[in-house]
Amino acid sequence: MKNRIGTASKPALVAAKLILISTLLAIFGSQGFAQNPPPALPAGVQDAVKLSKAGMSDDVIVSQIKNGGASYNLSADQIIYLSGQGVSQNVIKALISGGGAAPTAPAVPPPSAAPAPPGFPPGAAPGAPPPGGPPMDPSAGAPSVPMVPPGAPPGTPPVSYDYFHDQLGGAGTWVATPNHGWCWRPAVAVADPFWRPYFDAGHWVYTDAGWCWQSDYPWGDIVFHYGRWHRDSVGWLWVPGYDWAPAWVCWRQSEGYCGWAPLPPAAVFRAGVGFAYGGRVGVDLDFGLAPFDFTFVAYDHFWDRNLHAFLLPRDRVDFVFGHSFIANGYRFDHGRFIVEGLGRDHIERFTHHEVRIEAPVFRFGIGARDDHRGFRDDHSRDDHRDDRRDDRRGGDRRDR
Predict the structure, then answer these.
(1) Strand order in the sheet with 236-239
(2) Of 38, 68, 208, 295, which one has the greatest count of Cβ atoms within 10 A?
């Protein structure tokens, strides 16, 4: 008998555990329990509790669990506690599906024998680890085949790691990092020690998807709408990602100032759910960003294209950050990810300029942008700049 139990198949054990769960929930689900301290729960299980309390459907929560790829060997106390917190049987079954086995790591393709692309160390290939470092898969998280991400504007080409590599190679350097794999450093970030993402050679436009960064850089359609940014000892690095957004930034506001900062790699986006960071799920998260990660500007400079002249001193940045609060305004609208940020009405009121809904221009390819450095329509920022000059002379052209 002992041998038979020891050799029982994994599906049979899973089925037995699910039967036990159903029995426990049927017996105890509606009864009261002594107020014992809540059992410790893994971070992924805590996320399921938060989503359940937020009123998310079972389909959404189960999808998140499946995307996470983890399973949990829950005790009877943990199961009963989850039921008391309003977590459904379907969600609990999804959490333990697999009998607590560790998730299977994605297969790492063997290093390519192709010559190293521009910017890679001699003899290295995109999939090769740096000397002495752990194996890294540069396409981790990438779609299995190139695809157009949901919510991307019409005409967006299918994206993949190879697409990003081919488009960006000539405008910067690919750098091997121990925590994020191969990342890309733009050449301008090396030449200008004060360079930062979402800062120069571009401006904000308000679109039907919220605030969008319209970049003048020929490579801006990629790095400001996909992926994350990370600052190392040299400067800023772009970490590839495969979800599209009008801008991947965190917004803050304080009296007289607004600010934004690029999201870090640890800000994990889940379509239909929102963001996860540090074991928390939500929309108005701080993502662990420090004061110097932010670009803060006075509202009357929000529309300026060159913000170098308006950078705040470091001590002033610390003060403004300390008196600011998060205003990300992330939301979903029929499956589309919207970056409302500080909001259209808020910016209109504090900058004293009408905010129109505009259609940003994307060239989708570095070569396609070479002859389109201005790409503005009739609602250009030049109109706003002229209005602001009139305001400073005391002659506001708008009766508000």
Answers:
(1) 172-177, 181-186, 236-239, 228-231
(2) 295
C-beta separation of 219 from 186 below 8 A: yes
If one compares 365 and 313, the residue with the highest pLDDT of the two is 313
Instruction: Give residue-wise pLDDT tens across range 263-278.
Output: 999 998 877 677 888 8
The tally of CA atoms less than 13 A away on the side-chain side of residue 310 is: 18
Query: Residue 50's pLDDT band (boundaries 50, 70, 90)?
Result: confident
pLDDT in tens, 229-263: 999 888 899 999 998 999 999 999 999 999 999 99
**In angstroms, what CA-CA distances link 166 with 39, 114, 161?**
50, 14, 9
Strand residue runs (E) in the chain: 172-177, 181-186, 202-207, 210-215, 228-231, 236-239, 249-254, 257-262, 268-270, 274-277, 280-282, 295-298, 325-326, 330-333, 336-339
Q: Which residue's entry shows tokens 């697409």?
A: 163
Name residue 260's amino acid: W
| Residues 6 or more apart whose Cβ sits within 8 Å of residue 175 | 119, 182, 183, 184, 185, 237
More reliable by pLDDT, 367 or 145: 145
Sign (positive or negative) of CA dihedral 213, 216, 222, 228:
negative
Check whether 336 has a pLDDT greater than 60.
yes
Q: Is residue 116 within 8 Å of residue 124, measured between CB atoms?
A: yes
Side chain identity at 152, as an amino acid letter? A
| Residue pair 198/213 in contact by the 8 Å Cβ criterion | yes
Other CB atoms within 10 Å distance of the CB of residue 129? 17
Hey, CA dihedral for 381, 203, 369, 152, is it positive or negative? negative
383 or 40, higher pLDDT = 40
Q: Could you report how far apart the first and last alpha carbons of the chain are, in Å?
A: 85
How do beta strands 202-207 and 330-333 pair?
unpaired
Model's pTM, two decimal places?
0.59
